[in-house]
Amino acid sequence: MAQRKGSGPEFEHEPVLLQACIEQLQIKPDGIYIDCTVGGGGHSAAILEKLGSGGRLIGIDKDEDALKAAGNRLNQVKSAGSYTLVHSDFANIGSVLQDLQLEKADGILADLGVSSPQLDHPERGFAYGNEGPLDMRMDRSTMLNAEMVVNGYPEAELARILREYGEERHAGLIAKAIAKQRAIEPIKTTTRLAEIVKAAMPGRSLREQQHPARRTFQAIRIEVNSELAAVEQLLDRAPLLLKPGGRLCIISFHSLEDRLVKEAFRRYENPCICPRDFPICQCGLKPIGRSLHRKGTIASPEEARSNPRARSARLRTLVINEAPET
């Protein structure tokens, strides 16, 4: 988990909601900040610029290509602060801090979107528009990939994944078509899968603005990378790793992620589990934080035009309560 330096593949992308993130983190020069999804280092570079000699940035990512590129970018930032890059899933944020002998942070940021370079490089297998192997692993050291899901999961399980993770109305039809085609020969490429999905969709669905395979690819990617489970673990652990007044900022890109974040923040604001007809709380559970903006923050029209990734992004921030005076 030492600081990483050196050249890496092109992994640049425009960070989403950058100004809002920096404003809502309220960065202290001597603070400790964690970027849970360092990616190409866009958000991390902006944080590092604001740190003084006592400040420290921890960047986490499970994509080693991203870490190499982030190291490149952060090495060029003029800052008195220090940084450490860690190859890990943000679900392991607690053990990452423990290994670094850190107890609490002043701010935690997570951008839950897929990085543009992952989508743009066909060999990573994330995109339906470019032919590549069915991979979709963010961490290429893990075993499960998209080809294993598509060719190995039972039809009913495929349908469940498409329905739950992709919110796909035609999950049953698509799963049936995949099962039929893989019985003839294994499905190996992104474009072949996209063709099968498109052929299985009713005609009216093909008139939608988005690509007919978009929801299917999202669902399979979430399954391969255990994305929602990781978000749930982050939401469970991150608030406990923040100092009083610390801030948890999370950028989500689809309704499944945003729902998890919104519901978790509501629990932290109002954890009481007493029946509603109780006149006085008996459970003793106390709020640990408050949402900064009830509906979250979305991109301005200007940012949405200049950065297409920002169009579906929503930033939610939880501010940890100050310790009560004694």
Q: Order of SSEs, N→C?
A: HEHEHEHEHHHHHHHEHEEHE
Straight-line N-to-C gap: 38 Å
Q: What is the arithmetic mean of pLDDT?
A: 91
**Major pleated sheet:** 8 strands, mixed
Structure report:
- It contains 13 helices and eight strands.
- By secondary structure, the protein is of the alpha/beta class.
- β1 (32-35), α2 (42-49) and β2 form a beta-alpha-beta unit.
- It starts with 17 loop residues before the first helix and ends in a 6-residue tail after the last strand.
- Mean pLDDT is 91; it is low at 1-9.
- α8 (171-184) packs across α9 (190-200) and α11 runs parallel beside α12 (255-269).
- It has helices at residues 18-25, 42-49, 64-75, 93-99, 116-120, 146-152, 155-166, 171-184, 190-200, 214-225, 227-237, 255-269, 301-306, and strands at residues 32-35, 56-61, 82-87, 105-111, 242-252, 289-291, 297-298, 314-320.
- The protein is 39% helix and 14% strand.
- Strands 1, 2, 3, 4, 5, 6, 7 and 8 form an eight-stranded mixed β-sheet that branches.
